[in-house]
Design goal:
The protein has 508 residues and is an alpha/beta fold. The strands form three sheets. Strands 2-3-4-5-6-7 form a six-stranded parallel beta sheet, with helices on both faces. Helix 4 crosses helix 13 and helix 10 crosses helix 11.
Amino acid sequence: MTSWASARNAGSPVLAELADAVLQPGFKGTTLPDWLRKRLAAGLGGIALYSRNLVEKGQIEALTASIRAENPDVIIALDEEGGDVTRLEAFTGSSRPGNLALGAAGDPALTETVARGLGHDLARAGITLNYAPVVDVDSDMDNPVVGTRAFGSDPALVARHAAAWVTGLQAAGVAGCAKHFPGHGATDVDSHDALPTVSLSAAELAATALLPYRSVIDAGVRAIMTGHLLVPAYDAGFPATVSRPIMIDLLRRELGFDGLIVTDGIEMPAVSAEYGLGGTAVRALVAGADALCVGGENATPGVVGLLRNSIMAAVNDGTLPEARLAEAAARVRALSRWASAARDTGTGTGTGSDPDWRPAALDAARRALHITVNGPHAASGPPHVVELDAPTNLAVDPVTPWGLGAPLARLLPGTTVVRLAAPSTAELQEAVHPGAGRPLVVVLRTAYRHRHLTTSADRILALRPDAIVAELGVPGDDRPGAVHLATHGGTALCCQVAAEAVAGLLKP
């Protein structure tokens, strides 16, 4: 490794190399742009891919091969949660149950198998670091960003499944990255939009949000991602991403984590609105972060250059100690060496003992499906489906399909479907009318968080109390409908399992 002893020089190539090593920017397009080729050749430490970069299997593998051809040691990262947040299957929907469904299924062995299969798919695609799993405890019913991405609201259950997920993923040679430290579940604000505050005491956090982190650290997780969260119990002045008490005192010293600390996207307003991109990058490194994720639409040549220059300037003016930057770069290289060893042994190539994870995924999705019968449902036959749409958080790709109309149409030819967003009473009546004399299925996603969804569902049920209601998100306390189905996730597999259950109810 290049010595950093003489790096403190305004034009030092050694300092530039260290600054490049800690960056993990994204980019636009499905092929590697020339500006990024040059940065990789100069020692850029990481690349973050998103669904905008991934179109089909062969293209993904060609893209990662072209990235590694410029820099064999580069870390190629992806936030593939395997649930409603999916990048490999963004255009089709995930063929796996997401975290909430795995938690509802209640069998960590199934979780481990599903995650190992995902790891093999990622390894075959050339991915070395997965920004997953989400290990937040979904403890606030008003949380707008965690939802089905969490294993559940019970800290002990989340801890068990988080450890199993990490074990399975990393057995395939792909590094896991637990997020969003120290826990995004006890908030009612989305850090994609603004800075959330976690109001729990240190004792409450130790008993809840921190339990899964202790579990994944014990399981050997290679990386942990910071959350852009204000946690006054540890630091009343600065968000976790730029907080030394949280990064060093809590995560490093108290919890004993010695792996890679990665920031959530530093372009997110929760931090960038206050400190700017360059300021956030420097503050995060000073606080103890090792790698900077730059996602969204902000990873342009100019922005990536600005970040490198900001880091170098901070070293030169003494704001960022050289030793701290060198330590961060060393942790990036350590993860790179781990991934290289996995590739060399075949563990991280998707070959060898690739398990058949599909039976486990199907079993988990079926176990996660909870059916409540409240009364008689409509007669048999092809149903009419009314899907009530609601906005999702920014982590969920808007192109990812969801719903029961398509899988029900495959099972019951003649099925019709209409999708509505915040409909008026007249629009609801018009939408329900084609279902006259036929079974009616109402499809929702986390309805309890959206008044217009619960109001619309109530109006439909007033017209058709025999309707079947399918909840594809986080189920609330109510189970409306003649029959209520809770899938605990809207992935393609969870929707298929729910459609099979509905078809079973409606077949003569």
